[in-house]
Amino acid sequence: MLAKTLSFGLNGLNGYPVGVEVDAHNGLPAFDIVGLADTAVKESRERVRLAIKNSGFDYPLGKVVVNLAPADTKKEGSVFDLAIAVGILCVTEQLILSRAKNFVYLGELSLDGKLRKVKGILPALISAKQLGYTDIIIPCGNVSEAEYIEGLNIYTADSLRTVVELIEGKLALLPLPIKQWRPDLLIDSPFDIKYIKGQFFAKRALEIAVSGGHNMLMIGPPGSGKTMLAQAVPTIMPDLTFNEALEIAKINSVVGELDGFIFKRPFRSPHHTASLVSLTGGGTKVRPGEISMAHNGVLFLDELPEYTKSVLETLRQPLEDKKITVARAATTVTYPANFMLIASMNPCPCGFFGSQIRECNCSVFQIQKYLSKLSGPLLDRIDINIEVESLPYSQLSDEQESEKSSDIKIRVDAARKIQTERFKDEGIFCNAQMNNAHIKKYCKIDAKSKLLLENCFIKLKLTARAHNRILKVARTVADLAGVKDIMPNHIAEAIQYRSNDNFKV
Q1: What are the structural domain ranges in the chain?
Q2: Would you say the pTM of this structure is higher than 0.85?
C-alpha cells in the first residue's frame, strides 16, 4: 500500500512543498529514505520508528520505503519526521488516509513520541499560505512564530498521539488564535540617548544618519562613548512595520534564534574576530550571516580596522545591493541585507593619535598599517564620518538630562515621511539610496551653495567621491529642517560630517 502526506522544506527563506510518499510491503525488515536526504533526515528512521512504538502504535515488520519528492532537491533538517510517521500510520491502516492528507505536517519527533520545536517554521508557513495550503500542524514549541500569521488554520500538538487524535476527530482542537501585532516603542530603553553625556555633535550626526538611512563611521579614542552612541541608534529609528518584522522573523526562524515574534529592530554587533562565513552567511547548510540578521536594523562593527580585510571587503556588495547572494557548489541562496552600518574605530592602534588628553605612542608605520585596512570603495559607502572626542569631567558630572530619544524620533519620523512621499515612484525609501540620477533630480543647489562647496573642496582637499555623499547628507539636513530646497547652511553642515575624508598621519 502507498500513502502520501505533505510537509515543507526550505531553500533560503523560501519554503517549497515536499511530498512524503510511504510504501510498506513484505520482505526483510528495512527502513529506507530516498530523495536527496541529508544526515538529519536519514536519522529520522530511528526517531520515527521508536516514536511510533512508544506512542502505542504498531510499526510494520516488513520493508518501509520513504520518498521525499521532488527527488532532485536536497532535503535538510528534522522537520519531515511528523509527515513520515503519519504516512507510516496511514500505510499500515492505523490512520485513515483521506483524513490525514488534508494537513501539512511540520515537526521533529523525540523517541517517546513528543513533538519538538524545529527551525524555519515561519517561512514554511508563509510559503504554504502563498501556495494555497490552509490546514497545518506544528509543534507547540513553535507557537510564538505562528500566532501572528493570518489566513491559516494552524493546529499545535505536543505529541504524535495528539496528532492522530486530531486527524481522527477525537480531539476538539481549535486553530491557533491570531494575535494583533504592534511594534515595541522602546519606552524607557536603557540605551536611550538621554543617558549619554555631552557629545552633541555626535548626537546630531546620529539623528541625520538615521533620518536619511546613511551609514556612519565614528573615530575617537577609547572611552569616548562610541559604543553607547551606536547602541542608541535603534531607539531613534522609525517604528518597525509588520512586513519588516516578518522579514526579520523569517531570518531568525531559519537560524533557530526566533524566541517569540519580532517587535523591535535588530542590533547586531559581531566581534572583530568573526569569520567571513559568520558575517556573510554560508556553511554546509548556507545559513544567514550577521549582515542578514541585521536586516531592517543596525549592524555595528566596533574597532573596524581590527576585522580582517577580506571580511570588510565583503561588505561592499550588500551595502550597495541590500542583499547577499551566497553561492556554493550545491546551491545558491539569496538573503536580504538591508541594514544601517554603524562603525567605530580608534585613530591608531593605541587609540590616542591626535588626542589632547594622552600622548600617542604609535609609530608612523603602525598608524599607516592600521588605517590601510579601510579601502576607498568601502569608505565610499559610508556617508557620514565624524570624530568623537573624550569628554571633560565637567560634562561627565553634569546632572542635567539631555534630549530624549523619543524627542529625536519625532523629527526623524517627520523627515522619513518627506522622503517616503518624495521617492514613492522611485523604488527607494530614503536619501542614502539615491543614485546619480536621483541626486541630479532631488539635490539641486543654488549658486551660493555651489560656491561654498567648491571652496571647501579646494581648502579641505576633499576627494571627488565626497561630492555625492555631501549632497545626500545635505538633502537629509534640509528634510529635517522641513524645507524643500537645499540651502548653503545645509551644505555647510553636511561638509562637517566629511572631516575624516583625508584623515592622515
Answers
A1: 2-168, 193-496
A2: yes
